[in-house]
Amino acid sequence: MTLFGTPIETIYIILLVVSGALTVLYIFFGDILEGVGETVSFLHPALILAFITLFSASGYLLELVTSLSSLTIVIISIVIAFILDTLFNIFVLIPIASAEQSLSYTEESLIGRIGKIIIPIPDNGYGEIVIDSKSGMISKPAASYEQAPIKEGMKVLVIEVKNGVLYVDPYENLED
């Protein structure tokens, strides 16, 4: 079969090379298009490029290996690309997107958390606090909210955050 005077195999190869090149460019410059995939998840650039790549690769292989009609091969290639693209979205893109959100934290999210002093805080001075989190230990500079000294090893409650410094008060757990 020919399309616009060009054999269909050539069109499949051109689509494969172009979508492969665009995929490489998307890997390097994908942050520019990051917001597009957030509005409508099935329009994510990685999904579109993967669909075109899978469609053209399966179409080319089926043209070479089988004696089916070109229209049948196009339909089979669309189905194959759709199934594999859906699996790619479910098992790769969605878990990666949720993993990024669950491992990150903001300084404001530390307010109300309990930590432990690892470098003592002197009068009107700074020390260091460590807080357990899902992604490991968070170590931040700390100062006393009441401008009072706090000894090493004490549990503290984060009251507020200013300029990257956590202002803390000693924490006494009544349930212990």
How would you summarize what this structure contains?
46% of the residues lie in helices and 23% in strands.
Keywords:
176 residues; alpha+beta; five-stranded mixed beta barrel; two-stranded antiparallel ribbon
Question: What layout of secondary structure does this protein have?
Answer:
Elements: E1 2-3, E2 6-7, H1 8-29, H2 36-39, H3 45-65, H4 70-103, E3 114-119, E4 126-133, E5 136-144, E6 155-162, E7 165-170
Parallel strand pairs: 5-7
Antiparallel strand pairs: 1-2, 3-4, 3-6, 4-5, 6-7
Helix pairs in contact: 1-3, 3-4
Structure, explained:
Helix content is 46%, strand content 23%. It has 4 helices and 7 strands; from the N terminus they run E-E-H-H-H-H-E-E-E-E-E. The chain has helices spanning 8-29, 36-39, 45-65, 70-103; strands at residues 2-3, 6-7, 114-119, 126-133, 136-144, 155-162, 165-170. It is rod-shaped, with a radius of gyration of 28 Å. The model has no long low-confidence stretch (mean pLDDT 85).
Helical content band: 40-55%
Q: What distance separates the N and C termini?
A: 78 Å
Could you name the ranges where pLDDT drops below 50 across 5 or more consecutive residues?
A: none
Choose one word for the global shape: rod-shaped
Number of helices: 4
**DSSP strand count:** 7
